[in-house]
Specification:
By secondary structure, this protein is an all-alpha fold. Helix content is about 80%, strand content about 0%. This is Membrane protein YkvI.
């Protein structure tokens, strides 16, 4: 078989990063809420969370590769046997809730950012983002991965420009703040167990979107790609999170815990104040678009396959593009409408519980079935083959 020139492990690692890097990450609000406010535990928490996600994604990609389950509904129907009729539907609900909420928040964040930078109307801005999402989701998996790779490189470069100079200049302040946290007793709700549980909830919430990653598993050519993608994705996501945490820790006593866009505090009070403000705005916009594209593509693929389940191969291929356009347009319109009509707070009330539920719906089943189950079944398989 002729190997693709695409470095699939790089594409998957970048896909993971751009899905993870939404407006909340870019603005710093998500990083403060889940990590920075825990003080002395803040630096290690991102590493643990991304290690958990890497373990989940490695299992998800490997199971998809070994079982030819390249679409998330096929994957869940096989993985959750013998309770797939219940668990597949539970996952479907979780994924759609995450898709709708995260994409609507992406619209809102991107639209508000463009309004503050360019002065254009919120409605016009979100319409432009909607058009971008639609265009980027209708040209197939390979196009989505290429777009993710380009956006990832741009985001990484921008984050380095913002945070590395500030971290270098602020190392004494970081050390001072961490030392103060270590010497003081943890505030109520901010102890070690609380930090670990929040870390697991963060990993759980990010794991909900494995459907978006499974959608690209058909491009995998061997198991080495899966390991490379998992390791590279872990290093990329963990290092960018830790870098952001360190940059924000410099200003933890300067009101950053209550800022809606903590990254602006870093820029305005740190190195490169002024000219970096447009850069963080661009990063927030890129994060909003990349997250929306990756999530909508995953659900579009699922619905298109469902629509064509009775078609022969030729008929399915002939109708695939038009169906993708229609399905993507419907999901874009739904999430755009939520962002317009102020329904985000209503949906967001259940947003925090998704991570909690996902620990038990996704993380624990994968650990028990894929990892522990394989270890327990190995001696039996060996004995049968003897």
């Amino acid at each position: 078989m002729k190997r693709s020139t695409e470095k699939i492990y790089l594409s998957l690692a970048f896909l993971w990063f751009t899905t993870h890097f939404g407006g909340g990450f870019a603005s710093g609000r998500q990083v403060v809420e889940y990590f920075v406010r825990y003080g002395k535990y803040a630096v290690i928490m991102p590493i643990i969370s991304q290690a958990v996600i890497a373990i989940v994604l490695y299992a998800a990609w490997m199971y998809a590769f070994e079982n030819k389950a390249f679409y998330y509904r096929v994957w869940t129907d096989k993985f959750y046997k013998p309770v797939e009729k219940v668990m597949s539907n539970v996952y479907e609900l979780l994924y759609n809730l995450t898709l709708v909420t995260a994409t609507a928040v992406a619209f809102a964040t991107g639209g508000a950012t463009m309004k503050s930078v360019f002065g254009t109307s919120y409605l016009f801005n979100t319409a432009l983002i909607a058009a971008a999402l639609l265009l980027l989701t209708i040209f197939g998996a390979k196009f989505v991965r290429r777009a993710a790779s380009i956006i990832a490189i741009a985001i990484i470069a921008g984050m380095f420009i913002i945070y590395i100079p500030n971290i270098i200049a602020g190392l004494p302040k970081i050390a001072e703040n961490l030392s103060a946290f270590s010497a003081a007793p943890a505030a109520s709700g901010l102890g070690l167990l609380d930090a670990l549980w929040t870390t697991m909830k963060y990993a759980g919430f990010q794991s909900v979107v494995i459907g978006a990653y499974i959608a690209h598993s058909s491009a995998l050519e061997d198991k080495k790609d899966i390991m490379k993608a998992s390791v590279l994705g872990f290093v990329l996501n963990a290092s960018m999170l830790v870098m952001t945490v360190l940059g924000l820790l410099i200003f933890i006593n300067d009101g950053i815990l209550t800022e809606s866009v903590p990254a602006l505090t870093v820029i305005r009070n740190g190195v490169g104040a002024g000219w970096m403000v447009p850069l963080i705005s661009v990063l927030i916009l890129l994060g909003a678009v990349s997250t929306g594209v990756n999530l909508i593509y995953g659900i579009t693929q699922r619905v298109v396959i469902l629509m064509g389940k009775n078609d022969n191969e030729a008929s399915f291929k002939a109708k695939e593009r038009n169906r993708s356009i229609v399905v993507s347009a419907v999901y874009v319109m739904i999430t755009w409408s939520i962002a317009q009509f102020g329904l985000i707070p209503l949906i967001a009330k259940g947003y925090g519980t998704l991570g909690y539920i996902s620990v038990f719906v996704i993380i624990l089943p994968i650990v028990l079935k894929f990892y522990i189950g394989r270890v327990l079944n190995k001696p039996q398989s060996t004995a049968e083959n003897a």
